[in-house]
Write a structure and sequence with these properties.
VanZ family protein, membrane, about 0% strand, VanZ-like, transmembrane, about 65% helix, mainly alpha
């Protein structure tokens, strides 16, 4: 996006993305870092896929609810992180890698904080599910939105100037400014 309006719009997108990102992370912290009163607390689950296998052994509804909740908890970060970054022209694989890594670090941070809260445990499967959710949201939304924004920007630049009567206006020209001879510039003399 070029021009003052394009820069303003990009700035607004970045600010909106950052505000929504902070709001979502505050919601996630509020949702997951509340103490719970339970008669006992099981040990931390550090074996990958153990909790997912246990959820799949339950009824289909419980498995969908548990696994889907893990996928959806941080999934908005897959869209909000690139939005806060504000890049329209980015390599898709690099963008996915940056977003997935940032999502994994956020999921790990939430899991580590969660292990310090009464009644909550550390679960490596929640980190895996949260990271996959971030990556899926990124793959499903961000490339399409970036393509649409690039097309809109290209359409705005390619529109020819039109006069009121419908004819194309002449292209404006900028007069060239001559370059001073090197000898005048280096000697410091003025004529």
């Amino acid at each position: 996006m070029q021009g003052p309006f394009g820069r303003r719009a990009a700035f607004r997108y970045r600010v909106a993305g950052f505000v929504l990102l902070v709001a979502h992370l505050a919601f996630v912290c509020w949702l997951t870092l509340r103490p719970t009163n339970v008669p006992w607390v099981s040990a931390a689950t550090l074996e990958p896929l153990a909790t997912i296998r246990a959820d799949l052994a339950l009824s289909p509804w419980e498995a969908v609810r548990s696994i889907g909740g893990g996928l959806l908890l941080l999934a908005p970060l897959g869209v909000l992180l690139p939005l806060a970054g504000g890049r329209v022209a980015a390599y898709p694989l690099a963008s996915l890698a940056r977003t997935a890594f940032s999502g994994a670090m956020a999921a790990l941070g939430v899991a580590l904080l969660r292990s310090e809260v009464t009644g909550q445990i550390m679960n490596v499967d929640s980190v895996l599910l949260n990271t996959v959710g971030v990556a899926l949201a990124h793959v499903l939304v961000v490339p399409a939105v970036r393509t649409r924004l690039r097309r809109r920007a290209d359409r705005g630049r390619a529109a020819p100037l039109r006069r009121d009567d419908g004819a194309q206006a002449p292209t404006p020209t900028i007069p060239r400014v001559g370059i001073a001879p090197w000898s005048d510039v280096s000697s410091g003399t003025r004529t």
